[in-house]
Amino acid sequence: MSNLKKQIKANATAVASALLLSTAVSNISAQEKAGILGVDHVGINVPDMKQAVSFFTDVLGFSAVTSLGPIPLDDAWKKNNRMNPKTGPVSFKMVKAGTGANIELFEYQDNKGSSQQPGGDDIGASHIAFYTNDISKSVAYLKSKGVQFLGEPFLMPSGDTEGETWVYFVTPWGSKMELVSYPNGKGYEKKNPSTILWSPKDAVKNPIEKSDSKALSEAEIRSLVEGHLAIWNEKDLKKREALMAKIYADDIEMVDRHFIAVGHKEINGFVDDLQKKSPSSKFTHIKAIDVNHNIARLYWQNGTPEKPDAVTGMDLFVFENGKAVKLYVFVDNK
C-alpha cells in the first residue's frame, strides 16, 4: 500500500508540475503575441486639474511631466465611450510617480458626467497603491498635510500577504488610494514561487535600471567582499558596525532561503546570534571571488579550526553607489 501511495503522489506531482509549466508557457506565449511589456500608466478622471496636480506634486512629491489639451471630443467618440453628449473638451497631464507606472490625470471641461465617487463594492471601483518602506513615517507626513485616512495601518498576520501593512487614504476630490509596505517581503515568497510579484522596493535597486550608480572596479568590489567576510567574523560590535557602514548600504537586504533581513541592525542581530551559537567558528572563502560588472559571487565555508568546512555556501552581491545593496545567501545542503 505504501508503494502505491508513493506512486500516486509521484504521479500527482508530475501532473501538477506539467500543468504549471504549461500555464507558464501559455502565459508567456500570449504576452509575446500581444506585445505587452508592462503597465505604462493608470488614468484618473479628476474634477479640478490644478488641485490634482498640486496634490501629486506638493503632497506626494511626484513630478508633472507632459500636458495635452484641451481637446474637443466629437459626438461619435462620446457615444462610443458612453459619455454625456454635452460634456466639453478634455485635458491631460502625465505625472511621474517615482518608480512604476505613470499616472494620467484627465479633466473634462463642463463635465456632465456623474460626480459621485464609486463605493468600495461598486463594479469598476479601483484604487492606486503607493509603496513605502516606512508606512508609519509616511502616514505621519501625509496627516501633517491634512490627508484623510480611512482607518489605521493594518499588518496582515498570515497567508500570502503575511508581513504586508496597508492603509487607505482619500484625495482632496474623494478618490480612494492606498499606502502599502512589506520591507521584509510577503508570506508567499517563503514558498519559493516560480514568479515573484513586481515591487517598487526591488525596482529601485535594479542594477540594470540604475543609471546613476557609482562604477566600481573589479579590485574595489573584491575588496568590499573581503570586508563582508570580516564583518561576519568580527566579534566587537562597534568595529563590526563601522565595517558595515563602509561596505553595506543603509537599507541593504539580505535574502536567505528562510527570511529577509533589512538594514544593519537586523543583519547585526543575525551575526550576533550566529557567533553566540558557535564562538570558535570562522568564515573563509574557498574560491576566488567572481565579479561581473557590479555583481559579485563569493563561495565560503564556516566552521571551527578542527572542521573549517562544517557549513558551505555561496553569497551573491549587488553593488550600487559604492556599497552592497543586495546580499543573496545560498547554504549548501549536506
TrEMBL record:
Keyword NADP: no
Any Pfam family: Glyoxalase
Any GO MF annotation of the entry: metal ion binding
All residue ranges annotated as the VOC domain in the record: 38-182
GO BP annotations listed: L-methylmalonyl-CoA metabolic process
InterPro entries xrefs: Glyas_Bleomycin-R_OHBP_Dase (IPR029068), Glyas_Fos-R_dOase_dom (IPR004360), MMCE/EMCE_epimerase (IPR051785), NTF2-like_dom_sf (IPR032710), VOC_core (IPR037523)
Domain of life: Bacteria
Protein name: SnoaL-like domain-containing protein
Species in which this protein is naturally found: Chryseobacterium cheonjiense
